[in-house]
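A favour between colleagues. Tell me how you read the following sequence-structure pair.

===
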Amino acid sequence: MTENVFEKTSNANRYGPLIGAIDEGTSSVRFLVFASNTAEVLTYHQKELKISYPQEGWVEQDPIEILDAVYECLNQTVENLKQLAINPADIVAIGITNQRETTIVWDSQTGKPLYNAIVWMDMRTTGIIDKILKKIRNQNKDYLKSLCGLPISPYFSALKLKWLIENVSEVKDAITENRCMFGTVDSWLIWTLTGGANGGVHCTDVTNASRTMLMNIVNLEWDPYLMSFFDIPQDILPQIRSSSEIYGNIVDGVLQGIPISGCLGDQQAALVGQMCFQQGQAKSTYGTGCFLLYNTGTKVVESSHGLLTTVGYQFGPKSDPVYALEGSIAMAGAIVKWLKDNLQVINDVQETEAIAEKLSNDNRIIFVPAFSGLYAPYWRKDARSVICGITEDVNYGHIVKAALQSVCFQTRDILEAMKEDTGMTLTKLLVDGAMTNNNLLMQMQADICGVPVVRPVMCEITALGVAIAAGCADGIKKWDINIGTNVPSDTFTPAITENERDVLYSEWKKGIERSLDWDTDNASEEEEDINKMTAPGLFMFGTILLLLIARYRT
């Protein structure tokens, strides 16, 4: 009876074929369904993910929990479609977009993970990096950049994989017995959804592969020198594919038989979702971290100012790849979460706008959130968080506002570096991500950077990007690439003078200087004990105590 109802009420003519998008982020998983005729979201389901911190600087997730969350989202979204009288059979393809650099190893015979997923912001590999740099002339962290486009940093997958091989006996044994598989989250999901141990497809796309430090940025293949440099065996690596082609079909569940035909790292998916298809266009995504990508066309541009060279997308195996310069900020939405969970000065992330709006515009508190060091354009793992400029009239609201401003200052850092590398100044900044719902943050971003900030009304940009990739693949061809190019948007224009923004930015730079050189690896034990007492730990403890007292007084 149900099938007959759907046959009569199929919305294929109204919406066109439907494209699904698995959006697997650091904090949650979602499955969204798009109408190919209009690019609108018809329905979705979201599941939060847990993050564990087993030691200081370690960040992990459970790969099985990620997979279970994906299945729950698929199942519930299909139920939502039925409730809307939309036939799930109209879904013709799905794409996968994912948190990048997060590293998973699993057993090819059992399908079980050999260790927790090591999340992109994890810092446990700093010791390995120190050993590597000592063997390189001048300890040059850009030594491999000409090959892979990336600096030697804990951020990228190769270092995480190297740590697993050196420290986890289950991984060593699995490699010896030829049953170890490595992948970023996209590979783990594609392999499992297409059959797992029973014929699952072990692949990744060029955008995710470009974040491992193992792929040659020019020929888009695993590089023999890079694999040798990190002691990574090639047979555990996935096959590198384009971002838009059929990788395989889902083997069971509510979407059995549906092809997976799109794959993009989440930031590259946002680049596509913002329709940044022309050289010189840029977008900034505000999630757990903040990531600004600048389309450089089919040309590989090597940054000399601290940016990354990455693959933006490749629409089909026979198409030329499109490259991007990227500036990566570790702490964006994560700062607000820290204010809520650790500092406990807010009860909900939505409060930050109202709290900050109550303050005068002369807030001169500088908060450098270098909890895991500084990413682009500094790449300083020795940096730690500092809050500068505290006076007796400061309360927790000033810290909240400074935390929001820090995201804007870091974005300007990246825009300044991009200007130096490309010789071009952006005329506008396209933005997306959960934090863009904060109007005050968007206005501060326009003020501090001195360019209009354009926010699309349709906020599901990352999922839209991979839906476009999936719908455009050969064998699918159900998406018009021009749909959605004129989406409604809000524009925030700068409201302060150039002199005012330069004064603010110079104070930010002073804060950056004070955040550096907290590394105590080379100190004596006595000096190290003193540093531990006087540096970030005691400093932040005192700050927390001050803020809590100030909050309860107000």
In short: The two ends are 63 Å apart (CA to CA). Residues 1-9, 522-539 have pLDDT under 50 and may be disordered. The CA atoms of residues 279 and 297 lie 5 Å apart. Residues 396-422 form the longest helix (27 residues).
